[in-house]
Structures are given as structure tokens and as C-alpha cells.
Amino acid sequence: MTTSEPRHLDTGTDDLLAHVEGHVGVITFNRPDRRNALSTAMYLAFEKILPELSMDPDVRVLMVTGAGSAFCAGGDVKGMNEAHKTGSRDGQPEALDDRIAWLRHRQRSVSLALHNFPKPVVAAVPGAAAGAGLSIALAADLRLAAERALFVTAFANVGASGDFGGSWFLTQLVGTAKAKELYWTSPRLSADEALALGIVNQVLADDGFAEAALAWCHDMASRAPIAARLMKENLNRAITSDLPTALDAEAANMVRAMQTADHREAAAAFVEKRTPNFIGE
User: Fold this and answer.
1) Minimal CA–CA distance to 239: which of 150, 77, 85, 112?
2) For residue range 227-279, what is the model confidence (pLDDT) as tens digits?
3) How many domains in the chain?
4) Do both 241 and 116 map to the same domain?
């Protein structure tokens, strides 16, 4: 694990924090008083910081997590209730078509941007991931959960249909019938139950979760970053492409990966029985 000092980044708001530590970029939902419920400021911060992190040569892995005892509670239901009473919509437009366009844009700048982020994305879930918060966790490539974490679609509980891609991502992970069950009945899944369903990749102890999750990401970041990026391209493409297209793209990426200095270093390290030192070239 790296010992370098964190480099803090300006997101434009305290609702969403970002820093780079070694080769890991970290984004943190930071509204612990509202269980990290989403805000317009968060959406704007994602739109600002994700392109910056994607181009940062130091960042090989991105970790998304939450401050305090939750990952993200999704939409701010208290705020929704206040909006129904006052008519204020936290920066959202009033006209129906404009609101649809607004949400479509936000979904693409968060969930689609995480899915397409050119480096591995890990959601580190210290507590509740609910509603759109769960959807955003599902948009990550991998999920680490604390033992106390819980996962709930939640939309049925507030008379909503779902957003931020949860229905698509969950269907990829658990299949259509199970995804429908989880949306319609909205059970509260423990970390172990989510692990059994394939929603979570690993469950880590509550004590020291943040440090353990970051160490896990540092370990991933120590691997060949160009190969990891090309793997993500291949695996994302596999969701929607046919086999001939996937094979052709795999061949091109394989040849590209084997032309890198990192591949040459790995081959030499294998023969010399040592740990390779990847430089991202």
C-alpha cells in the first residue's frame, strides 16, 4: 500500500469530495447527516470530477464510497417532501419534458460515466446503499461491502419506478426474474445476501473497512493499468455485442497490450521470479 500524501481535488462542493492517493482516485459522498442522499451539487460535481480523474495519469483505479455510516441513500426523500410542499426543486426545471431531459443528463453524467470510466471502478459500501445510491454502486465494476452494509432498491417503498440505471445493472448481475423481484418487493439485503446473489464481490470487516477497501484498491492499482483498461473495454462490450465483434475487438486489444512496456516487464519478471513493476506504458 502506498504511503504518499493524498492530493485533494476541487469538486466545487462539500457534498462530494475527491482526492488521489497513490494510484487510487477516491470519490466520497459527503452528506452524512442525510445518509449521503443525492443533491444537485453532487451531480454537478460528478460531471466535473469524473473527466478530470479519467485523464489523471496517476489514477489507475477509482474508488467511490460514502462518509459516515452510509454509502448513499439515493434520492433525498426529505427534500422531495419539502419540494412537494414548497414547490422548490433543488435546481430542477418545472416543465415535465425539461425535467425528463434533466434526469437523463444526470444519469449519463454519473451512472453511464462510471460504467464507461476508462479504469476499474470499485464501490466501497460502508453501510446502506439504497435507491439511486444502489444504482450508482451497481454502475461500478466491483463492489466491496462492510459486514453491516445493506442493499435495497427502495423505489417501490416511495412510489417511484427507479433511475440511474439500477434496473439495467441489476439485471446483468442477477438475471431478469430476480431483478424484478428485488424491484417490486424491495427487500433489505444484508452484505452476505448480496454476496450470495453476486451483487457484492467481497465482504470486509466493519472495523477498519475504509482502510481495508482502500488497500484492496491499491493492490488492484499495482497491476498493469493498460491491460486493465483494455479488459474493461472487452468486458463492457461483451454485454451488448455479438461473438464475432467481441472476438475481433479482443484480438486488437490483445496485440496492443502485448506491445506495451508493462507486458515486457511482466514477462521478464515471470522468468526472473520477481514481482513486476508496472509503469503504465
Assistant:
1) 112
2) 999 999 999 999 999 999 999 999 999 999 999 999 999 999 999 999 999 99
3) 2
4) no
